[in-house]
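User: Predict the full complex structure for these chains.
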Amino acid sequence: MIYCDIEGADSLWPSMSNRISDELGTRVMEDIKSEDSLSSHRHGDTLPYIHKVGAPPKQNLFYEIKDAVKETFFSDNPLGHFKDQTRSRKFVLGFQSLFPIFEWGKEYNLSKFKGDLISGLTIASLCIPQDIAYAKLANLPPQYGLYTSFVAPLVYAFMGSSRDIAIGPVAVVSLLLGSMLSDEIDPNSSHDYLRLAFTATFFAGITQLALGFLRLGFLIDFLSHAAIVGFMAGAAITIALQQLKGLLGITHFTKNTDIISVMRSVFHSAHHGWNWQTILIGVSFLTFLLIAKQIGKKKKYFWVAAIAPMTSVILSTFFVYITRADKNGVSIVRHIKKGVNPSSASEIFFSGKYLSSGIKIGVISGMIALTEAVAIGRTFASMKDYQLDGNREMVALGTMNVVGSLTSCYVATGSFSRSAVNYMAGCNTAVANIVMSIVVLLTLELITPLFKYTPNAVLASIIIAAVVGLIDIDAAILLWKIDKFDFVACIGAFFGVIFKSVEIGLLIAVAISFAKILLQVTRPRTAVLGKLPGTIVYRNILQYPKATQVPGILIVRVDSAVYFSNSNYVKERILRWLTDEDAARTENNLSRTQYLIVEMSPVTDIDTSGIHAFEELFKSLQKREVQLILANPGPIVMVKFQASNLTNLIGEDKIFLSVADAVATFGSKVEEP
Amino acid sequence: MIYCDIEGADSLWPSMSNRISDELGTRVMEDIKSEDSLSSHRHGDTLPYIHKVGAPPKQNLFYEIKDAVKETFFSDNPLGHFKDQTRSRKFVLGFQSLFPIFEWGKEYNLSKFKGDLISGLTIASLCIPQDIAYAKLANLPPQYGLYTSFVAPLVYAFMGSSRDIAIGPVAVVSLLLGSMLSDEIDPNSSHDYLRLAFTATFFAGITQLALGFLRLGFLIDFLSHAAIVGFMAGAAITIALQQLKGLLGITHFTKNTDIISVMRSVFHSAHHGWNWQTILIGVSFLTFLLIAKQIGKKKKYFWVAAIAPMTSVILSTFFVYITRADKNGVSIVRHIKKGVNPSSASEIFFSGKYLSSGIKIGVISGMIALTEAVAIGRTFASMKDYQLDGNREMVALGTMNVVGSLTSCYVATGSFSRSAVNYMAGCNTAVANIVMSIVVLLTLELITPLFKYTPNAVLASIIIAAVVGLIDIDAAILLWKIDKFDFVACIGAFFGVIFKSVEIGLLIAVAISFAKILLQVTRPRTAVLGKLPGTIVYRNILQYPKATQVPGILIVRVDSAVYFSNSNYVKERILRWLTDEDAARTENNLSRTQYLIVEMSPVTDIDTSGIHAFEELFKSLQKREVQLILANPGPIVMVKFQASNLTNLIGEDKIFLSVADAVATFGSKVEEP
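Assistant: Here is the predicted structure of the two-chain assembly.
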């Protein structure tokens, strides 16, 4: 009974497929109700659909390398639309690809502007209080948050290609920056702190630009989704805990961010007495904001959540102003500098002892900012189905931060919460960011003095309400359900952030992500196959208890490409299957294994170490008087087997179209015990 | 015309396979000449061999984790033979597994000893001159090489499980150690240099022990074979160049190891005049050694190569002694301390400023030593077909170096060349190492004064002759033929070593190896499939130009597990195939793509990011009014699809047994343009 495994046909070279069909008289399996002409071949000798396979066309080395480079760095074919264009057209296209606003701007119209105006105003009302609060997270004076929300969105609007992202300072990056900067310089003691912040922002921008230009954007994919979920949740809790200072009106507060130091700080301060007015303001507005957030989850009422922070600020400021609660110990903002961003070009450290720490902080915060912005961009791009060029986005974000660092901004990126509001408010293009930017400009020029009496407690509530959304318990549960290793990565990053620091959490997240990749390539799966009764199908005997092994033959499937990182494991795992199986067979008085069939369908690629491993496997088996048979090696594998002369070593007559063919050939040759 | 792809059957759940067979009336393909009872089902309604697949048996979480840990760290099942044994027996087995000599020692006999004696004497005669020479490479006095060849092989003989490895100092590790140590301390100025060498040796041993005990031995697999080939060749050339000092009798020689500094040093010294007597000795013995090596390649004459170095030493020493050539500027060894190893336990830095550099140098040299020893162990184990437990080997090597560091040895490991001689001389067990060790002991106690007149030039010749074997041009050519990327790794490591330093070369080797792994998991292959005319086989249209696309349907195969590192790429690549294809089809007035079939046979695993990617792919396609169809997802993928509810989102009726089934179902539904 000989079948031909059709699915396996592509892996065979003409000589071999002919050989197999000649030798075995393999016939094509056909559906007896077949509707097309195939049925006429049923009794024929020709094999109508074993096509000549042939080695894949031999590629010129130059093209081979070109293809590899293209697929690695230009997989999105960024220059595709430059093809077959005149030179002047190419220049226009190039200009437009750097400044997409000149592309979509041509089709801009009043009805689009209506949507952008409304959403721009909405995110402005949301961002102004958040800006002030986030600047405090980064240990910067409040106006720097507003500065960042003025320049950065303007630059992005001209260069970015996401239509929905809302640009500005965000909580996690502010915390990360604040924590790393104050490890270097005490924020209260020196103007150098501010200068280092600009330096870090500058290098964050340079990092993003470099990744974009060098088309290394894929590097951010190495921070796995699971790790980000844990990192974000940990950062959210850390940020929320930091706000206890403002919310409870504590004066002496720890500088550490880990949960133990913070809780100790909170309890120690308890017997100094907390300020009840502060707590009253903080807790009541926090309740208000959280309820508003809950209501805003319905798409219809999204504006409730959007205007709640601004409403809180206005109400609480008014309340403090009329009650003069600040005289009773309620801490207030006190002073926001009026006027537009001053230049900060001369403030950046381009030399001196802070340069290297500026670069380090810049690279880390730039990468994190990038991760957040790209994740947001991708989410909304896939919701509205437009393509986003990750590398071009990075160039836009990088330019934005470089320009920002010269104009008193700190690291800006896309904000999850504000982008969602932007989307729900019906934004159409990046003009929403321009509208927001103009509103922030007006705020800076006109109404900053009005924030004087804004209580810090309400800013703390705004931050807490905003970061609650970063804790995604559903996602964590899904991770647990789908992939336990992902869950471990998530929890590791989470605990790292809350018990140590943001940087340690980040390090754990990256380390676990890498460990997962390494594990994946080091320990591929293997399975022993058995025959499903009454069929010629060979399946994993653990998954199919009914599958039975063939006497004298052991069939092992390797479920991965074989590279240097796993070649030894694969070889030794196969030999261990053989040893274990032989021990069991001897015990049960069955014939010992005389043929080892390696099912190679899932082996999509192999490198020189893999070839060595197969060579050694062959030799080890020879010593044990076991014949090595290969079933269905793929095209790339066959090319390399031939290049390394391994096909001759193993013998072409030991390489089969399918497991079934191999068993059919050797099953009858097995010697009885 | 409907076929059932049998090979794909394992990926399906009962509901689905039943559904498919019900809906499509799928019938089993049968060989019309079938010899068994299957043919009786040909017209029947039963499906004798579409077995109920069922989700793979749901595993208890504990077992799932246990299995993963076991497969990662205990893949060699090291405790297998402890099973079902009494406690005292377990103790004996445990003791034997730590000291294998008590296992194989029981069966040791005189005939085995004969082989071991001969090979032990042979490698002793080879190692004594090498030891003296290699100690100089590490900038240590000559006796330390001999010390290392006395203690280390003894310890290994008791604990190691390789029967063929010859233990002692080796060229590459000596060079690496010498180069890293002298970056910290000037070797000539201070006793601290020696102390740091012992410290590094101690921590090299600790590193090896730790890797073995923690079962992290697989980490050394990450240094790819290709990188090692390049690194070794580079190190060999660097070592050979260093010997120009001794060979040409140059007095002022550079401390750098890169080729440019060395060549400059050589040419600068030329006009001071080289010492012709030194050159005469060096060149003539080098010629002799290389010829002997060439002759020794024939297995019958291996002893020619084995005794040549000792012969050279004796002849040259005698020659210098009678001619008193040392008075004419021929540099000689002058002094080797007589007597057995002194204790060095109190010399190791356990604190102070050199501790951290000692640890760093120890970890690096320990890893390199390990790589070399494990590679040798594996090679010979597969030649004689015995299993080697990599982790246990590491424990043995680690203990050996820790003990060595306490007894004035520096880092020892297995030597490629001496192990090969050992094997060819017919060694049977590690007793050969004991024999060698005893000979070295006698040398230390009795004849070291005789080496006084040994010219350094002959030691240089011995080193050059030994390291020439590390340059494996054939391996490099094979790398080029099989895998271009491997070749780049090889060349990168090679140039790194010869143009910069051993450490830089090593760093390049590791970096390229990692880059390859990252590339592999970041940019998996995808292919568009077409139908081979007259068949139901779907194959890569680039490989099979005859394959034709189905109107209105695009079939894409993903050739890798989908993880966070490639999920976005896979998603965007599939969408790009769709965009490109649609553009081409519109141009040719063909119907636009209405169904996208993703062939998932090679997707062996998926994680949460992969699930997200498929979710987003589904949503993007929905926006474009394209239906997503999956063909043949594997069992693990299906479990995760179900856990994440993705099967419901995509629709169970969109998941098919094979591409052919899917095309059969939707091919007729395609709307004409």
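Chain A has a mean pLDDT of 82.
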